[in-house]
Specification:
The chain is of the alpha+beta class. The chain has 13 helices and 19 strands. It has an eight-stranded mixed β-sheet. A three-stranded antiparallel β-sheet has the order 5-7-6. It has a three-stranded mixed β-sheet with strand order 8-14-15, with no helix packed on it. α3 packs antiparallel against α4 and α5 packs across α12. The relative contact order is 0.14.
């Protein structure tokens, strides 16, 4: 959530920044400022009212003791009037604060100055790319055919047990999935990330804290009886560990990693681009999260990008890194880099990771702060990235490494799988 200070400094400039994300926000910003002014004026009036009540409370007893009963009764009557006025003022202030917060949460994060102007994925900038595109023969199969051929993932069984988009991993497919999870976690912990195992459901406050609520409510699975939400990513519970926490500046940066299944309704997703593993309702992902000092968060972001890039390189996958344009960024992000890997059999790029800096946007919702040597309390910057999401990584590994003798396992994974071919 943007702070009032960010909006009040220069409303027109704030609106220009949000226009990069495709939002016409000037009227909303002006209304927010007006409501903040109203809230402040009501608070001032309320404080004056309470001060008069306190003064009268001290004099009433003295007037009775002095035998000035009539004056004491007048003061009591005035106190009663003031209490009614205070009650009305408090109600007005609460209403102004409620409306103010309702408007604030509709405003997305400011995009960083380096974010390209654009409306769709076509306007994203390619930062760099690497790896060798494999040359497959005409008989090459897409991964949804390969998994049937080698009987390693069963979509029909998943549909029977739950529904479409909930696959069952089998035999070498299950082993490869487990190997990838362990490999990702090992890479992250070696790089200094502390592993945690968070819950797979969160409460409403956690969903609000990282910005999924109310923005993405329709995309989350909601357990209505208990008002819990199945997590769309480990980012939600892991970042919320620091909700309402004041850290010592010396503790920064904090680096955490977690493996979780992730659950997304993916409402409105149809067509050829969602076949097989390309888009699921339940999938596995390993996440990295950082809490950073504001002056070092973009250095941390670049470090996270290089870390994910090193993993993709070790998996021998052709890849490219994109800087997302304003129209393709998430509601909460200030700057996002997407990783895509080349799917040889499908002949297209598949997104496998987003690495983002949210600056203080999430921290303001979370009230995640730090205290420096000057004893002043400030908001931290939060960052997160997929390291990595498994379904499309698995799809690319299967397609790019298919041979007449089976599917070759990347060398870095064979110590985890204990086999080098899927046959």
């Amino acid at each position: 959530m943007l702070t009032l200070k960010q909006l009040r400094q220069n409303p027109e400039a704030a609106a220009e920044r949000l226009a990069v994300k495709g939002m016409d926000a000037l009227q909303t910003i002006r209304r927010v400022i007006a409501l903040d002014d109203e809230r402040k004026a009501l608070q001032t009036e309320l404080d004056a009212n309470l001060a008069e009540q306190n003064t009268l409370a001290k004099t009433i007893g003295q007037l009775f003791k002095a035998g000035k009963t009539a004056e004491a009764e007048q003061s009591k009557a005035r106190t009663a009037e003031l209490k009614e006025v205070s009650k009305a003022l408090e109600e007005k202030k609460t209403a102004a604060e409620t409306r103010l917060n309702e408007l604030l949460v509709t405003l997305p994060n400011f995009p960083h100055s380096s974010v390209p102007v654009g409306k769709t994925a076509e306007d994203n900038q390619v930062v760099r790319q690497g790896g060798i595109h494999p040359e497959l023969g005409a008989e090459a199969l897409p991964h949804w055919e390969l998994i049937k051929k080698y009987d390693i993932i069963d979509f029909d069984l998943g549909n029977k047990l739950t529904g479409a988009g909930f696959p069952v991993y089998k035999r070498q497919g299950a082993a490869l999935q487990r190997a990838l999870i362990t490999y990702f976690l090992d890479k992250n912990t070696t790089a200094g990330y502390e592993e945690v195992m968070p819950p797979y459901m969160v409460n409403e406050a956690s969903g609000f804290g990282t910005g999924q609520l109310p923005d993405k409510e329709g995309q989350m699975y909601h357990v209505t009886e208990d008002n819990f939400y199945l997590i769309p990513t480990a980012e939600v519970p892991v970042t919320n560990i620091f909700r309402d926490v004041v850290l010592d500046e010396k503790e920064l940066p904090i680096k955490l990693t977690a493996y979780t299944p992730c659950f997304r309704r993916e409402a409105g997703s149809y067509g050829k681009d969602v076949r097989g593993l390309n888009r699921l309702h339940q999938f596995d992902k390993v996440e990295i999260v950082q809490l950073s000092h504001p002056s070092r968060s973009y250095e941390a972001l670049e470090g996270m990008v290089k870390h994910v890039e090193a993993i993709v390189k070790e998996l021998e996958l052709p890849y490219r890194i994109l800087r997302l344009c304003g129209g393709d960024m998430s509601f909460t992000s200030a700057l996002t880099y997407d990783f895509e890997v080349w799917s040889a059999a499908q002949g297209r790029w598949l997104e496998v990771s987003s690495v983002s800096n949210f600056e203080s946007f999430q921290a303001n919702r979370l009230k995640a702060r730090y205290k420096g040597e000057d004893k002043k309390t400030q908001l931290v910057h939060t960052l997160n990235g997929s390291s990595l999401a498994l379904p499309r990584i698995l799809a690319a590994i299967l397609e790019n490494n298919q041979t007449p003798d089976g599917i070759r396992i990347p060398k870095v994974l064979t110590p985890y799988t204990r086999f080098n071919m899927i046959r």
